[in-house]
Amino acid sequence: MKLGAAKAGETSRRAAGDATATPYDEMRDAKGVVRPHYAALAARIETLSPDELAERQRTLERFFLLQGITFTVYGAESSTERIIPTDLLPRIIAAEEWKTIEAGLTQRLKALNMFLADIYSGQQILMDGVVPRDLVFNAPSYRREMQNLYVPHQAYANVCGSDLIRQPDGKFAVLEDNLRVPSGVSYMLANREASKRVFPGTFRGAGVRPIDRYPDLLLTTLKSMAADWRPNPQVVVLTPGVYNSAYFEHAYLARLMGVPLVEGRDLVVHDNMVYMRTTTGLRRIDIIYRRVDDDFIDPLTFRRDSGLGSAGLFNAYRAGNVVICNAPGTGVADDKAVYAYVPAIIRYYLGENAILPNIETFLCREPAQLGHVLANLDKFVVKAVGASGGYGMLVGPHSTKAQQDEFAAALKADPDNYIAQPTIQLSTAPCLIDHAIESRHVDLRPFILSGEKIVVTPGALTRVALRQGSLVVNSSQGGGSKDTWVLTDRKDLSP
Amino acid sequence: MMLARVADSLYWIGRYVERAEHLCRLSDVMLTATLDRTESATQIARIALAAVGDPDDAAKARRPYEAALALVLDREDAGSVASSLARARENARQVRDQITTETWERLNLIHLRMSDPTAAQTFADGSQAFLHDTIADLHLFKGAADATMSHGEGWRFLLLGVYLERAQLIGALLEVCFGDRKRRAINDHSALTSLLRMGCALEPYLRVYTADMQPRFILEFLLLDEDFPRSVRFCTARIEEHLGFLSRHVEAAGVSGPDRLAGRLRARLQYADIGEVQAGGSSAFLGAVLDECAAVHRQVYETFVAYTLEQRLPA
By residue range, what is the domain housing residue A393? Predict the structure, then answer.
């Protein structure tokens, strides 16, 4: 199929919310020439007819359906299962670019872990006035219960999934850190399995860095959190259950790590030890990789109405008899208001400048900044501090006057609860949409593990805003995903 | 060592899959038998319906196609093939980390076909082909489990479910046909052949007894044959084998497992004599076998899944 450069350009112009910037095109440079790292894929696509591409798309979808990588849509009479929309064409990242991303993410997570260790012990950073005290203590994700609790290696956020976007100038920036229970890694792995099937030849020639060690690295990271006197720690994955939308991922990770997938009802806490009910009696658990939010892990400590966790779990954790990963209370470091201070946090603990910049952020709690935001609501993206998943959000350039008025009122009523960022044109990548190749906006979610050391997996989940012109990539809001190829540096390859 | 909840799910996958296969076979035999205008056609339909627990309904038996359609695809009926497979698959989803991808794919595929909106049309276009394909796919599922899963605890719970369900289904079928309840005795050749087909036993039977169709031989074959995988005796031997393995670890913890019950049940069938069974009344014998199967089921649950914590807490 012929790739029309003009077509991509046309889409970008129409999508541009901010008239001054044209989004960065992942595949072509400003002159419309295919970038070197995309050359092989572009050449391959040109040899395929629309029918052949559609056939490959069907193969891909069939793979997901067969594997049961689906979510359930509950209807009035019956429920149907749908696959998560997945795009055929991989997104490619050159080796040199990845080096920057890897260094930036490592630096960032290191500093955020130090920040968490600090605010849950001596609180030096608050005393030095780098981060406002009330911002931390008023954050709903701050957990007083975590105060003065020993966390091995200061690794609070063992699994982190940061959302990066590529700005119009081609530089990556961090849009959001996810330090609570980030999901999506199974789609990174499943997308890779699928794309090896649909583009085997191109894949082989491209020199794509493998990501299949992720489960192994995750297990190593989790085990590194165990106490020294438990030489063969029993690791489990704790899931809210089969009705959770990320259930597939929980089962997938448990299977690939070879550890039991438990639910709250499988757990028993006795004498501050955590056990699971097995066929041969109770068996002690050392490490819980929990995929249940803080609020729900222990009805005695957190939400009383939760049936998803286990009563007494948090006390067992405080007693040092079990490790909960990620640690409760990590959410305070990915709070949308604390986010604005991350560059300062990095400078404070590491004495370095942030390698990956933040997006410029206005805190509505500051009266001057609030005034600026209110005056330019049509240009800003306004987000509620506590919300996630693309909800509670105003995308200024795509909003109506009524929506803006509604947000203006909310901002004035509760300024602490909002931040605003300029509307950034996410970069675009080619996608197969209805038998034609078109540009769509994409972001990038790499996964970082931190235990004894910090490891960045050379791959990521690329989320796609499948609706034309849309900048919202969340799967709950019409987003899909695609495989992400991080290429090997040819110089690094031995002959 | 495996999670109690997981063991329970694997056991039920085995039961549901076996149930679905049996129902497909009964439906298939019912539809095939009623193609010929024989006197026994309605009788065969009534046997099939009674064997799946439907109240004896003569009107239903005269409309075998509708009865089979409901038996296979009625999602409202918790006992239908489609419902059984949906439950097996739902259980499999809950223990997705415990079964191999190959095994999962087979079951997922069957479920997707059954729940497809066009399934009713496919059934109408060729019900025998539809049933044949479903049975073949269920065999593939069991084959994939056998060939790709470790033959450890999980696999044994799966097979325990399969054999316990099979023993009860064949037992119930035999009770319908040979119980002492006042029902017309089955003497007709085509009815006897159909009965063997319901147990998937026609060809193996012929190899042992030749084409000599005798009710007594059929009862003996389906109840007491040592080697035929659908005889009740064969099933109980497998139940004992798997439970013996599964109970080993529990007994180390000082708990008595259900293997004693399983051993007694196996012995009852292994040392039975068809003459004595018939003299004492086959209904009584079959009733005792079915009761003991139910007792094994209860004790499996109490020993491995729903045990009280007090017994198992560390001292």
Answer: 362-422
